Amino acid sequence: MSGESYTIVKGYRIFTGSPTGESIEAPSIFDLLDWLMARGFSESAARDIIKKIDFSGQMVVTTP
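Structure (tokenized):
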């Protein structure tokens, strides 16, 4: 699971790789927090990722 790349867009849709890839989920903000933490991000890092998505509209994350 380490090193996998996902693009998360506003509305919390998660895509494998780029946003043109396969959409895998559209969780709520709380589910996204849990989803990120289950993939190895700390709670603090997961909250920072969510803030950046809300601000910029999308973010590419790579699992630690």
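The longest strand covers residues 5-9. The mean pLDDT is 90.
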